[in-house]
Amino acid sequence: CQSDASCEGNQKCCQTGCGTSCQIPDGKPGSCPNVDLPIPPLGFCKTMCQTDSDCEDTMKCCKNGCGHMTCSKPMH
Fold it and tell me: What's the pTM value of the predicted model, to 2 decimals?
């Protein structure tokens, strides 16, 4: 995707480890950090969450730069 307008319905155009993709927004505030480097460095090459609701407190479910998802501290 190029922008939110190129996504269907209420999906948002979000950065991933390999560019951008349309994703359904979650209810938690903040946004995922950019994945210039894996989170944490070297990343967990395993999916740890599928949505923000799988993460504790204010943590968000984000791409980790290794092709998987992990709970990360949001950017505000």
Answer: 0.56
